[in-house]
């Protein structure tokens, strides 16, 4: 049974539909003829997913999941959705909120059509992320290194998502869930916390910020007075969007991006502002929900192994992506755990 409220509506929202002229600056490497060829190739290369059925004891309460969707990571996003539904005890209760970039080589309409034809009964919406709202806030030195402004979309979920969405699980596109997402959804955010994520307190936090940050007594005091900040990965977060909106966390993060624009206080793109605002004050979720770093480093061609302990979510963060390595016949051992979720069939060898 499907909840009436969760019908297959496709709503395309404009984030802050301001009259500002779109400056049209793009940072995607995909342009020109090759982009057009790969777009039609990719968009027509997926097979339909099997049907997913709710168990007997499912309520109609929706589980909201937000994820970005773009041509470059499309294969990852589709595999991630498939993995979520495949292992969910109540797959028909999962509602996906896809955030698409305004100028992606695959238009939001193309992406919507693709999701619809791949997952025929999926509850989802596609939202358009206006990149110009964030591009002006990204310091120029960081812009060059940025792969994708959609990395910043997670900061705008409060505005993007429907006002009646109070909680959301944010997931990167290079993940696979091999457990019931309901367990992650059910996590309690204690002590008024706004987000939950696995924390890594042995990581040296110093390295995420520059000397000019630590040598500034006012700024570095952010982490003073009893606050014990730990690294966390923003690719998997349970977010209380209601508290997020009320506490104006979008603005708090943007304030640090403003600081970064004037004075280089960190090297990475979208992660450090989250560490500045939330470090030491997140709900620590079991590490099984983000086995990260599996992307390793493309340049060195290094493969990673799993951390010890149980695994509910595999995350190919880092430069290498499993679909790329599999296609290039230089897969890492763990990439074969991703492979069964790949719904992109165009590249299947014909000689098998
Ligand atoms: C999640 O919480 C709901 C409502 O409290 C409960 O019915 C369900 O069994 C829980 N599911 C899991 C997997 O923890
Ligand atoms: C963390 O890194 C900084 C800078 O690289 C170093 O000075 C500091 O000793 C390190 N701290 C720990 C606890 O390893």
TrEMBL record:
Identification of the protein by name: Hexosyltransferase
Subcellular location: Endomembrane system
Lineage: Eukaryota, Viridiplantae, Streptophyta, Embryophyta, Tracheophyta
Bilayer topology: Single-pass type II membrane protein
Position of the signal peptide: 1-24
Pathway: Glycan metabolism; pectin biosynthesis
Residue stretches in coiled coil: none
Domain of life: Eukaryota
One term under GO cellular component: Golgi apparatus
Keyword Glycosyltransferase: yes
Family membership noted in the UniProt record: Belongs to the glycosyltransferase 8 family.
InterPro entries: Glyco_trans_8, Glycosyltrans_8_dom-fam, Nucleotide-diphossugar_trans
EC number of the protein: 2.4.1.-
Organism encoding this protein: Tagetes erecta (African marigold)
Gene Ontology MF: a single term: glycosyltransferase activity
Flavoprotein as UniProt keyword: no
């Amino acid at each position: 049974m499907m909840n009436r409220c969760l019908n297959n509506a496709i709503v395309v929202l404009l984030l802050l539909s301001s009259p500002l002229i779109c400056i049209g600056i793009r940072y995607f490497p995909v342009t020109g003829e090759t982009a057009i060829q790969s777009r039609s190739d990719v968009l027509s290369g997926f097979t339909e997913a099997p049907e997913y059925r709710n168990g007997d004891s499912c309520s109609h309460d929706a589980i909201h999941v937000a994820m970005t969707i773009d041509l470059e990571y499309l294969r990852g996003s589709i595999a991630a959705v498939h993995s979520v539904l495949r292992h969910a005890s109540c797959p028909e209760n999962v509602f996906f909120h896809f955030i698409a970039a305004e100028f992606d080589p695959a238009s939001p309409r193309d992406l919507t059509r693709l999701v619809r034809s791949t997952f025929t009964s999926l509850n989802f919406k596609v939202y358009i992320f206006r990149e110009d709202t964030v591009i002006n806030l990204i310091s120029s030195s960081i812009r060059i290194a940025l792969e994708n402004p959609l990395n910043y979309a997670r900061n705008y979920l409060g505005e993007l998502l429907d006002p009646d969405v109070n909680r959301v699980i944010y997931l990167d596109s290079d993940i696979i869930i091999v457990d019931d997402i309901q367990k992650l959804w059910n996590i309690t955010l204690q002590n008024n916390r706004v987000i939950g994520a696995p924390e890594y307190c042995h990581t040296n936090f110093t390295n995420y910020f520059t000397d000019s940050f630590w040598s500034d007594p006012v700024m570095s005091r952010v982490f003073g007075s009893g606050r014990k900040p730990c690294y966390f990965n923003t690719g998997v977060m349970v977010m209380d969007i209601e508290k997020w909106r009320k506490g104006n966390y979008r603005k708090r993060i943007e304030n640090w991006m403003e600081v970064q624009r004037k004075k280089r206080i960190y090297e990475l793109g979208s992660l450090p502002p989250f560490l500045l605002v939330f470090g030491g004050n997140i709900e620590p979720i079991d590490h099984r929900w983000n086995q990260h770093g599996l992307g390793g480093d493309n340049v060195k061609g290094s493969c990673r192994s799993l951390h010890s302990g149980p695994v509910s979510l595999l995350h190919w963060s880092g430069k290498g992506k499993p679909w790329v390595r599999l296609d290039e016949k230089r897969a890492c051992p763990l990439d074969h755990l991703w492979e069964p979720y790949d719904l992109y069939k165009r590249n299947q060898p014909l000689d098998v």
